[in-house]
């Protein structure tokens, strides 16, 4: 679903400025690692149970991670996007379903700043989010048929369905995008918020996929749901700052993939160190001393370190773009999107390759049910199909050759 063109936003201030210092990054990284350590205790069992991750969401709330990006003066963490993406990467080393849940939460809540037309509207939503420690899900899948949002008096009525609605069943609220027919927003795509349990909202328990099983990415159906003016954040525009949300979600993807590669390598190394005998043709006594095994880990670890550095650079560049606020130009917005597209290409291919090839170093016994090494590959293979990687390569190549930027959409 493309954004409609309308008047620029008039929000006067942006809550994020400058860059994270090392103290901030270290502080929240430590919190994220504590959460990851808790998730690690039963990550395999929770994946197999495939239950709606209410306990995991509560863990994110209790840790303070859900309000990490919110302004400190309103009671939030006061951190930067670079820090938020680092947190997503750390969680994804252990449980990328929950890394995805949190990454989408950050971007979904980001609608408050990117789409709110005034500071008053923005602060009202931020205060509610912080006070209630909301987890934000979404229902915006652009490849599904559009939802029907029809004016009825001063309100609207919403009907239709959306698949792949990440965090919807576990979220305290979900952000929904729909084209308005009639009323105040006639002809505009409106971003609005529905609290969990709103009458007419049906959460369909159909998220039973190969991986990312705890991301709560099920279908949501809307049966004549009443949408009031108080539910609306604002209308979507093609203003450069407002459209930074889409590169942001792609940047979250890149950090999820890097985290998956890091987690798979760490888990594989743990298994390899525990093996007592090398292959019978090897001159080494132990698997960890076999030169072929060392070479494989050396290759995977080096590639992962390189892509991780690319992720950190892109995350910092994103904060630079954010700091520009509504002064951000379309060209500047396009360049940050290309930088993130490069990361998407490199990290997606890294994750699917590293989580697969690590089995070459751990042997057939590591494919036994319950070992858990397969979780990384299943998650990487599932999420890397979110949008075709060839089109990200096309974006990068078209820009390199012709300085051509792709049309704005919820994927670019």
UniProtKB/TrEMBL annotation:
It holds the Pfam family Acyl-CoA_dh_N. PANTHER family: ACYL-COA DEHYDROGENASE, ISOVALERYL-COA DEHYDROGENASE, MITOCHONDRIAL-RELATED. Coiled coil: none annotated. The keyword Chloroplast does not apply. GO terms for biological process: L-leucine catabolic process. Residues 252-387 form the Acyl-CoA dehydrogenase C-terminal domain. The keyword Disulfide bond does not apply. Signal peptide: none annotated. It comes from Pseudoclavibacter caeni. InterPro entries: Acyl-CoA_DH_C, Acyl-CoA_Oxase/DH_mid-dom_sf, AcylCo_DH-like_C, AcylCoA_DH/ox_N, AcylCoA_DH/ox_N_sf, AcylCoA_DH/oxidase_NM_dom_sf. Keywords: Oxidoreductase. Residues 30-130 form the Acyl-CoA dehydrogenase/oxidase N-terminal domain. One of its GO terms (molecular function) is 3-methylbutanoyl-CoA dehydrogenase activity. This is Acyl-CoA dehydrogenase.
């Amino acid at each position: 679903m493309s954004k409609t063109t309308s008047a620029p936003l008039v929000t006067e201030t942006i809550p994020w400025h400058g860059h994270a210092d090392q103290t901030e990054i270290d502080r929240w990284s430590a919190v994220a690692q504590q959460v990851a350590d808790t998730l690690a205790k039963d990550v395999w069992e929770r994946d197999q149970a495939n239950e709606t991750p209410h306990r995991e969401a509560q863990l994110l709330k209790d840790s303070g991670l859900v309000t990490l990006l919110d302004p400190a003066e309103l009671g939030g963490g006061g951190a930067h996007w670079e820090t938020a993406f680092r947190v997503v990467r750390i969680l994804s080393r252990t449980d990328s379903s929950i890394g995805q849940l949190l990454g989408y939460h950050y971007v979904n809540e980001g609608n408050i700043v990117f789409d709110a037309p005034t500071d008053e509207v923005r602060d009202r939503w931020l205060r509610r989010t912080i006070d209630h420690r909301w987890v934000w899900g979404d229902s915006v899948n652009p490849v599904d048929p559009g939802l029907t949002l029809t004016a009825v008096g001063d309100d609207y009525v919403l009907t239709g369905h959306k698949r792949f609605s990440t965090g919807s069943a576990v979220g305290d609220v979900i952000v929904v995008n729909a084209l308005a027919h009639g009323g105040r927003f006639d002809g505009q795509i409106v971003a609005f918020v529905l609290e969990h349990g709103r009458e007419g909202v049906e959460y369909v328990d159909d998220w039973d996929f190969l991986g990312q099983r705890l991301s709560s990415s099920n279908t949501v159906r809307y049966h004549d749901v009443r949408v009031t003016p108080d539910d609306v954040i604002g209308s979507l525009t093609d203003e450069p700052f407002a459209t930074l949300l889409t590169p942001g979600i792609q940047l979250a993807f890149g950090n999820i993939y890097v985290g998956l590669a890091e987690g798979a390598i760490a888990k594989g190394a743990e298994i390899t160190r525990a093996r007592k005998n090398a292959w019978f043709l090897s001159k080494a006594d132990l698997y960890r001393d076999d030169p072929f095994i060392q070479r494989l880990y050396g290759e995977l670890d080096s590639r992962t370190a390189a892509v991780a550095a690319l992720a950190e650079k892109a995350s910092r560049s994103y904060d630079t773009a954010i700091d520009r606020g509504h002064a951000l130009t379309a060209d500047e917005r396009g360049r940050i999107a290309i930088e993130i597209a490069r990361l998407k290409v490199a990290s997606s291919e890294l994750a699917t390759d590293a989580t697969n090839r690590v089995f070459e170093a751990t042997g057939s016994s590591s494919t036994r049910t319950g070992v858990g090494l397969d979780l990384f590959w299943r998650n990487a293979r599932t999420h890397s199909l979110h949008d075709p990687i060839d089109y990200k390569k096309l974006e990068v190549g078209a820009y390199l050759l012709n300085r051509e930027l792709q049309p704005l959409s919820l994927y670019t």
